C-alpha cells in the first residue's frame, strides 16, 4: 500500500516541526513557552501543533522523547563502527557528550522539573547505565577489563551521567559537560584495565 501524495508532505512537515521544536527547546528550554509563542516562533498554525500533541504538556513529552531517540540513534551508530570494547566505552561516552552539548541549562532544568519529561530523561540515564554495564561485562569476558561487578559499575556510571546531564557536576567542578564526560571515560577505562601479564618468570 503506497502513501498518498497528500499524506507525504503532512508527515514531512510534522517531522520538520519536531526537529525545529527540539532545537528550540534545547536552546531555550520549554516551560516558559505557551502554544501561541510556539506558533509565532515556528510560523505554523495551532492546529498543526495539535497534530503533534493534544496539549503543551504532551508536546513537551513528545519533543523530549524525540531528542533522546535521535541522540541514542547517533550514539549507537558511532558505537557500531568500532570493535574493541575499550574503544566502545570511549566512543559511547564521547558521543553522549556530543549529543548533550546543544542542551542548555534551561532545557535541563525544565526537563528535570516536569514529572513527565523527567521520567523520559531518567529512562535514558538507566539505558545508558545498561549499555555501559554490557560493555563492562563484554570486556571482563574478553580479559580486557579486570574482574569487577558490572552492575555496580554500571550504576555508578549511570548516576554520573545523570549528574552531568542535570548540570550538577559542572556546577560543583567547573567542568563543561564534554570535559566531564572525558574525565569519566578516562577514569572508567583506567580503573577497569586488566593488570598486564607478568612475563618475568618466563625470561
UniProtKB/TrEMBL annotation:
One Pfam family per UniProt: TetR_N
Entry keywords, A to Z: DNA-binding, Repressor, Transcription, Transcription regulation
Annotated GO MF terms: DNA-binding transcription factor activity; transcription cis-regulatory region binding
Span of domain HTH tetR-type: 17-62
Protein name stated in the entry: Transcriptional regulator, TetR family
Organism listed in the record: Saccharopolyspora kobensis
